[in-house]
Amino acid sequence: MRSIVPTRKRTVVGISVLGLGLAFPAVAGVACGQAGPAPTAQCSSVSLPVAQSAPAPVCSCPEVEPPQAPAAASASAAQEEKPGLCAEGMAFIEGEYCPLVEQRCLEHGKNKAAEDMEAICLKFEKPSVCLSPQRAHMRFCMDKYEYPNKVGEMPRVLVTWEEASKLCKQENKRLCSESEFNFACEGEEMLPYSYGFERDANKCNVDKPYKEPGDFAPRNFSTCERDKACKAGFDRLDARGAIGERAECVSPFGVFDLNGNVNELVMLRYKEPPHRAALKGGWWGPVRGRCRPIVSHHDERYLGYEVGFRCCSKPLDEEAKQKKGHGARTAKRGR
């Protein structure tokens, strides 16, 4: 991702693409984690400090599927033309994903609620530019809403990566990968925000004043609900919105609240346990809250009062093919 400050100084985010055999030039990059209480781990291909009061945000290195020839149909058209490929409550996502994106910031944050003004961009230049030699074809399903994916309920928070993985597995799904989150959020147009190029707190639940956690000790959500001290501390900090409350906070693929409301756990496929966890999308506080930034400092047991998740899966036709192939192999071995 690329960001330009008002003085027009040019910076580029470099993203390592593992397993593709693609070599991108080393470039200077803007820090692209999130402002707020959570520190992040740094990507070796990105380095540019941003002045802020919170721990320095940075970027990690996402994985993508092997690149293929670009599809003729657009991502939105592919979604409309292929109904019934996902379980109920999920959006079908297919198109050409750009691993390395240039995005130029025209106006930085002036929101008094934000502690990290330089990190928040209010307006990006159109269009975003794909710097990758090739795009990668992606095809998957994603929950339309944050877990439990039920309109009107509150999104689940105070959940670890391990617990979120189990909850997705119970629904025959899995946690989304970093690149899946990116593409579902930005689409082929590589939008900085899921809804466009200009930040809008009226569309997504973002930019609410940050509150110091103080002595709040996070516990598993159900445990915290039963503990008076934990619940009182959580209620003081909590500023979630109900699922489906922000109808305009929607991506090109019809996925809601990918920016703001709660941070979302994703899977880093190129990492080993216990470092496969990362956070995407931002939350209700004054943080970046865009499609590409990532927080990758926490391990798989981290609990955060603003941390939730959603689930992904293969399209149903791919699942059917995989099961059919597995059944054929099993029958052959049994002969």
Overview of this protein structure:
It is globular, with a radius of gyration of 20 Å. It starts with 74 loop residues before the first helix and ends with a helix. The chain contains six helices and twelve strands. Helices cover 18% and strands 14% of the residues. The longest helix has 19 residues. The N terminus is likely disordered. The chain has a domain of 195 residues: paralog of FGE (formylglycine-generating enzyme) (Alpha-Beta Complex). Strands 1-6-12-7 form a four-stranded antiparallel beta sheet. With 335 residues, it is an alpha+beta fold.
SSE diagram, text form:
Elements lengths: L74 H7 L8 E8 L3 E2 L2 E4 L12 E4 L4 E2 L5 E8 L17 H10 L3 E2 L2 H9 L34 H6 L1 H10 L25 E5 L9 E4 L13 E2 L11 E3 L1 E3 L2 H19 L1
Parallel strand pairs: 8-11
Antiparallel strand pairs: 1-6, 2-5, 3-4, 6-12, 7-12, 8-9, 9-10
What attributes characterize this protein structure?
12 strands, single chain, 14% strand, 6 helices, 4-stranded mixed sheet, 335 residues, paralog of FGE (formylglycine-generating enzyme), 4-stranded antiparallel sheet, disordered N terminus, alpha+beta
